[in-house]
Amino acid sequence: MKKIIKKIKSLIIYIKSKFLLRQGNKSINSLQYRSALKKYNKAIKLNNNNANLYNERGFIYSKLEQYQEAINNFDQAIKINDKFLIAYQERGLAKLALQQYQEAINDFNTAITLTPDSIINLSALNYFYRGFAKGYLQQFRESNIDFKTAIKLSPNNSYIFFRIGMAHAELKQYKTALAFLNKSFTLVPQKFFIELLYFYTGLTLYHLEQYQDAIDNLDTSIRLNVECAESYFNRGLAKQKLNIDSENDFKIAKKLNPMMFA
Q: In a 10 Å sphere around its CB, with 0-12 CB exposed, 13-18 middle and 19+ buried, how is residue 169 labelled?
């Protein structure tokens, strides 16, 4: 009888933790990261041997830009399941954010090894992420090899071209960035990153001194997301170059993100 009661209690704990995992996912989808974090904390208290829960909580910490906390959670997920592909990928991204480039490369190496051949798009992303990290280490030849591999694996994936363009923009290689961003547009970008595609295209055109084209792209970025302070700020900078009144753009940017002007 005691064994049966113990099994029932374990089952109840399992069901409650799964419910909280689903509730946490709902919060992520609505960008309520703080709410999601509370739900994962509760779920982990009920079941502290679930790699998925630690991985999801790590993802939340990354979204909150608490990258070391994110890494700690991905570490725990991998300790429970050392074949957890997504945990290696997400930990690599958190390490990228902390400028731990070689450590990030190590995680992407593992992710590439673990990715099944059938999941081509995921494999392509991991090559891209590794190439991005190598670029920051000025390993440009190796970085380009990874980018080319990503494209070879997924030649019609608009998102891959966008991310490679974004990487070149971050590395201040603006002409190359623009070529990849334009290619992303031709492949019909998906809704979830279209606003960022216009933003990075606008940012890249600004650095190439094509100020009106930069404004046009940032106009679209703002129409798609009226709460992006960076879009208003950079459109203001482009307007200044053309002697167009930019005061309102800077005012909105400051209201949305006062830290930009601190």
A: buried
Contacts of 41-47 with C-beta under 8 Å, sequence gap 24+, read 43/16, 43/17, 44/17, 46/13, 46/16, 46/17, 46/20, 47/13, 47/14, 47/17
In the CATH hierarchy, which top-level class contains the domain 1-114? mainly alpha
Do 227 and 197 form a contact (C-beta atoms < 8 A)? Answer: no
The per-residue pLDDT for 29 is 42
Mark out the alpha helices in 64-190 (DSSP H runs): 67-80, 85-97, 101-114, 120-136, 140-153, 158-170, 174-186
pLDDT of residue 204: 97
What CA dihedral angle connects 9, 14, 20 and 23, to 10 degrees? -130
pTM score, whole prediction: 0.69
Tell me the two tokens of residue 186. Answer: 């031709």
Q: What is the mean pLDDT of each run of 10 residues along the chain (262 residues)?
A: 42 36 41 80 89 94 92 98 96 96 97 90 91 90 91 90 86 92 91 92 97 98 93 96 97 89 72
Helix segments in 187-256, DSSP class H = 191-207, 211-224, 229-241, 247-256
**In the block, residue with structure tokens 């670029």:** 135
Across 232-246, b (16+ Cβ under 10 Å) vs e yields: bbbbbbbbeeeeeeb
Q: What is the pLDDT of residue 36?
A: 83
For the chain, how big is the Rg over CA atoms in Å? 21
Say what the pLDDT of residue 104 is.
Answer: 97
Structure tokens at 138: 């000025």
| Top-level class of domain 190-262 | mainly alpha
**Domain definitions of the chain by residue range:** 1-114, 190-262
